[in-house]
Design goal:
With 110 residues, this protein is mainly beta. It contains no helices and 10 strands. It has a 4-stranded antiparallel beta sheet with strand order 4-5-6-7, with no helix packed on it. Strands 1-2-3 form a 3-stranded antiparallel beta sheet, with no helix packed on it. It starts with a strand and ends with a strand.
Length: 110
């Protein structure tokens, strides 16, 4: 079935990442933390999927990835400027995001 990935701001002061069926049933938390997590995007592969999101878990808003069950969390950027709105390229091999360092978009090769 079709799934919907969404951000829920009803958590412990942060915003969390959830997934549910397209009919609104089977709501499941993927990431519940006290940190901001948002700007989510995902790609689905034959065996699993990957979620991109921005989070201030490291002290600054950076780009992160994790799998569809919330494990294998990886920080992809780490600098003093906020980065947000990550998106997969149409072929799923690159990531584009906004950096407030120079207010430009950047691409990460997968």
């Amino acid at each position: 079935g079709t799934k919907i990935l969404y951000q829920n701001n009803a958590g412990e002061g942060g915003s969390d990442i959830w997934i549910m069926d397209s009919d609104g049933s089977n709501k499941q938390a993927i990431a519940i933390t006290p940190y901001f997590e948002g700007g989510i995007d995902w790609k689905v592969t034959p065996n699993e999927g990957s979620i991109l999101f921005s989070s201030n878990e490291s002290g600054n808003e950076d780009i992160w990835s994790m799998n569809m069950v919330g494990s294998n969390k990886n920080q992809l950027t780490a600098d003093s400027y906020p980065e947000h709105q990550p998106r997969w390229s149409p072929d799923g091999n690159k990531i584009v995001f906004v950096s407030c360092a120079v207010c430009k978009q950047f691409i990460i090769n997968d």
